[in-house]
Structures are given as C-alpha cells and as structure tokens.
Write a structure and sequence with these properties.
single chain
C-alpha cells in the first residue's frame, strides 16, 4: 500500500491597510511552517491588502475568484487563511474556491 500524497495547500493573508504593523511576509512564512507541520505541501501564497475585511469573503469576491483560478493551476486542494474567518466567510470562500477552506485557528487545532 502506498502512502497518501500530502495535501497541496494555498496560503492566503489579508492585510488591513490602516493596521499594518506585522510583516505580512513573515506571517505567511509562519503559516507555511504550520501547514508543513500539519502534513501539507505549500504550493501557492497570496496576499490581499484592503481598507477593511470584506464581510462576505474576507478578501473580496474578485480576489477570491482570482485565487480559485490560481488554485486550479497549481492543484491546491485546501486553502489556509492566515486570518480568523467567520462561519459565513468560510462558507462563502469555500463555495467560490471550490475547495476546503480553513483558517489559522483551525490549522493549529488540527496539528
């Protein structure tokens, strides 16, 4: 029996323009380490800067659609969001992206 291939993950982070304090690249690097610890292979990293979080999708519908196409291109099966998602945001992103969406908190709990 061959072992299952590791899950291919896309990482996404939202930076609020007014609240820039932490380095977004460093935050994504830390998230990549967590994803790797959970057994995933990071195949895509994406960042979005907005004045505020989109209440429906966190990153905005246009960015979510762009991310869906990029995930298709690299074969990402899961999207890991560095920000906390509301249940509605998680559901809406999952519908747009057509794949499982988890946030940082869920990822940490999975480890």
């Amino acid at each position: 029996m061959t072992p299952a291939a590791p899950e291919r993950a896309a990482l996404v982070s939202l930076t609020i323009a007014a609240g820039r304090g932490a380095d977004p690249d460093l935050a994504l690097e830390e998230l990549a380490g967590l994803a790797t610890a959970a057994g995933a292979v990071v195949v895509l990293r994406a960042m979005q800067e907005r004045p505020s979080a989109d209440p429906a999708t966190l990153i905005g519908r246009g960015k979510a659609e762009q991310l869906a196409r990029a995930c298709d291109e690299v074969g990402a099966g899961v999207v890991i969001v560095d920000n906390d998602l509301t249940p509605a945001q998680s559901r809406n992103l999952g519908e747009i992206l057509g794949r499982r969406v988890i946030d940082r908190t869920q990822l940490i709990l999975d480890i």
